[in-house]
Design goal:
transmembrane; 2 domains; 4-stranded parallel β-sheet; Oxidized Rhodanese, domain 1; globular; nucleotidyltransferase; Ubiquitin-activating_enz; membrane; Rossmann fold
Length: about 325
């Protein structure tokens, strides 16, 4: 126990708390900037098992913020590099590395035996999928997102409201690190806060970070916190995200990206309908309509239009997460 002596000194942790961490099984989705700080802190604290999913490979432009990796890792799968780095930091922590993205059909298997989920993918489509499956199972979910020098971290589900209670619908538009840029210290700060929230949940510390949202603004140097314990869940469960294995022969698949943007779609037979054409399109009444775009945002907007016209059998696909 010498490794953990400085944290077991805390009366709210002690040996009992350390045993809880050792027995804990945490699912982490994403091995990028947030996880560069999050993962070493979870492993360092003695979390027993981390199940890690990420389908990307390390690129040179990642290194300014994804400090878990080095130049020698460029070109290699992030999940495997992270597993190797964490083994050097604490062999007591077992890391299951999965070098593919976590999509809808894999979620039930990924959650087997898991005590807590950490969303470090910084991707709205994944966040909604995780919340939709964690909420009915009572699994706590810690989410964070960072852009530029601003971000947030929050605790959802696990007896508290889900992500849709605060954000019933996907945003109409949103930038990402690839399009709008981000500063490394901002990402590291939010990743550290995710780790603190995750450990606090596993240790059953009070007050719980579940039902709590913290906004960090490193432009104007504001940190704001609010609780949403009583936020009502939406009446409707929301339009689900699916992936390729969940498509059926009877689906009407609508590709919202142009041929120039996506020469190859998610299936052999799709309808190419641009978002601005959806309002004039007459959907079939006897098929499920599956709306496809890169991030899921255009698909969500198109689904909102169709739902307002009475279409009830709808599903979304975010091609960038497949």
């Amino acid at each position: 126990m010498e490794r953990y002596q400085r944290q077991t000194m805390l009366p709210e942790i002690g040996e009992v708390g350390q045993q809880r961490l050792s027995a804990a099984r945490v699912l982490v989705v994403g091995a990028g900037g947030l996880s560069a700080t999050l993962l070493p802190l979870l492993a360092g604290a003695g979390v027993g098992l981390i199940r890690l999913y990420d389908g990307d490979r390390v690129e040179l432009h990642n290194l300014h913020r994804q400090t878990l990796f080095g130049v020698d890792d460029v070109g290699q799968p992030k999940a495997i590099c992270a597993q190797r780095a964490l083994a050097q930091r604490n062999p007591d922590c077992r890391v299951e590395a999965h070098s593919h993205s976590l999509s809808a059909s894999h979620l039930p298997q990924a959650l087997e035996g898991i005590d807590l989920v950490v969303d470090a993918a910084d991707n709205f489509a994944i966040t909604y999928q995780l919340s939709d499956i964690c909420y009915p199972r009572g699994l706590p979910l810690i989410c964070a997102s960072v852009l530029g020098r601003k971000g947030y971290v929050g605790g959802f589900c696990g007896g508290s409201p889900g992500y849709r209670a605060l954000f019933p619908q996907l945003p109409a538009a949103s930038g990402n690190c690839n399009t709008a840029g981000v500063m490394g210290p901002a990402v590291a700060t939010l990743g550290a806060m995710q780790a603190q929230m995750a450990l606090s949940v596993l240790l059953k510390l009070t007050p719980s970070p579940l039902g709590c949202m913290i906004h960090c603004d490193f432009v104007d140097w504001h940190v704001r916190q609010f609780r949403f314990d009583d936020a009502p869940e939406p009446d409707a469960s929301g339009i689900p995200f699916i992936d390729r294995p969940m498509l059926t022969e009877d689906d009407c698949i609508v590709e919202l990206r142009s041929v120039e943007e996506a020469p190859v779609s998610v299936a052999g037979q799709v309808l190419r309908i641009l978002p601005q054409q959806i309002a004039a399109w007459q959907p079939p009444l006897d098929q499920r309509v599956v709306l496809v775009c890169a991030s899921g945002m255009r698909a969500a907007q198109a689904a909102e239009n169709l739902a307002a016209r009475g279409v009830t059998r709808l599903a979304l696909m975010a091609a960038n997460t497949l």
